[in-house]
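We close this part of the discussion by returning to an individual protein. The amino acid sequence and the backbone structure tokens for this protein are reproduced below:
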Amino acid sequence: MALYAGGDINVVEEVDINSSLDSVPVVVATPVPVRPQSAMLRRWVPLLVKFASIQVVVQILGFASGILVVRNLVKAEYALYTLGNTMLATILLIADSGVSSALTSIGGRVWQDRGRLSQLMKTALHLRRWMLGGTLVIVLPVLLWLLIQNGATRGKASWIVGIVVLGCGLEVVTRIYAVALRLKSEVGQIQKQALVAAAVKFAIVALALTVKLTVEVALLAVAAGFATQYWMLRRWHLHNLDVHAERDITMRHDIVAIVRKQAPLTIYYCLQAQITVWLISAFGNATSVADVGALSRLAMVFTIIGSVTSELVFPAFARLQVPALLRRRYVEILVGFSAISAVMVLATILFPHQILAILGSQYQHLESENVLMAISTVLGAMANLAWGLNTARSWILPAAQFIPAMLVTQVGLVWMLNLTTVKGVLYLSIFSILPSVLWAIGFGLWRIQRLERAV
């Protein structure tokens, strides 16, 4: 979730690029008048409206694709689709482990230098490919076991694993070069790629319905969306970056320094984000997995806000160089996100029958579970927002204190809750995420206070 297209950047005389990323950056700034609030609104509101309007179309296509899959796959097949999608997301997150955050943080200082930005992209891509290989070795056996545990034949499970590997191979490249797009405020290109990829995915699913929609075809549609973005990003890369750029040792050192600090937290948040599907897969049955997966389709509505923040907010926040603006922007972003999310949760409470009707008759009994899923999704999105704002400035939570505290909390919840039911795993998700949201926000405000005192 991010706001970046130009941002509130003021003239800065000197920023020590070679300083430790763990330290609070000391900025020697020429006093510049703060832009009036009305001027800021005139700049950002049209941009947000334009971006959000196209993003709504993208999300509608994605939502429609997901609903077609939900309504036309039997629960046993949809459970396998949910597992494949979940593990695909898990692999990509673990393989990243802070690389994208490092790119945003470092790129916020070199984005105007074509050569240096090209070196940064090449360095990060090489590192992330190695990380992906290691992640696949660890995660793929778990995916294979979960698929067979939930009724997949060995042949079907092998096909699903193969498609997941294909999707990961494509997305590992696109996620790196997409950071360059965001840093350079290429909003139109970002929107175009997202729109075309969503349209391709929808077209494949819709076409498959005329013959036979299977879990393999549904997952191939996801991979096809990744392939579309890969092709478009490669074309943009050839025209806007130096394809012959060499990897930079210093940049690699800086990226690894961030990854070492962020990887434990990334892995924790990754496991946390997917915990509902994993727990219900291990303790429940294929029907319960399908229920959780179907409810997550409805939660896609919340990703519209997430897309706006990730594509626009984080890069702009990363480029802010005036400490006086950091606290104001930090609070404004959090408050605005909370208000919009509250409206969406309220709609879920007021119109449960109408919302569940979208999923079809197989899922009409999930009224209370749908509300819990909405709350869990909002809290997860809030955690991602606070996490993204912090890591955009290289403010990494102290994993040595944070992770043990959260694990103790979750162990207690596992002992108290019935994890064989959808409600049980959703309650665990909610009560696990809430402390991490408060911790991340408090940590961000503390780092801002330190920066203000240093100036």
User: Anything to note?
Assistant: The first strand starts at residue 12 and ends at 14.
